[in-house]
Amino acid sequence: MTADATGVRLECDGPVATVTLCRPDVLNAQTPAMWRAMSTFSRELPGDVRVVVVRGEGRAFSAGLDLSVAGASGPGSFAELATLPEQECADRIAEFQAAFTWLHRPDIISVAAVQGHAIGAGFQLALACDLRVLAQDAKLSMAEVTLGLVPDLAGTKRLVELVGYSRALEICATGRRMDAAEADRIGLATLVVPPAELDGAVRDLTIGLLAGNRDAVIEIKALLAGATGRSHAEQQRAEREAQTRRLRDLAGRGE
Description:
about 45% helix; 6-stranded mixed β-sheet
């Protein structure tokens, strides 16, 4: 399906892929059709892609769930999901989550370029990325609680990992909005720049990410991503094993 039909497009330029939410007239509000399209992007990436940039057209990253769709009675609506057996409903939500979780892939580094609103599903999409570059006008909120819902697009664990349990609970339970300065202060932002410099900052970061040896970067991401679940001894063992693989590969003795 075309980007006009789904509201999201994938463009690849050598080692860089860009996912663009392209519904600027509704601040890139998200729909199940967009999530289905994003789920397929992981399978469509060329093998040489190393960095995936996620951005929104217009003045917002994403204002969250499109309530005109979710609040109706068609496929993906709250009304439809509520009628499904519990396991079928959970399975449907798992399909939605896949639109976000592929950005965790170990062989890519994902970067969210966030301007304006990143609300609810928009905030969770930014959290799905490894790195977040925020424009100074960014406004973030985990607003699901205001609809009587919970964040269910793989954002809760990432949020706790970044800001800790207490802060994550306060953010999710209140649904309040935070600005870019606060997001930077509590560890949500990799970088905060003036809005006019967002594209340039993302481009410079991408160049830096591509400068290193690809296999080394993949090993580094795996080491860091797994660190919180390992003891010190386990992490040190993982470092030793990763370094052994790198040494053998550089010496031409890898598998």
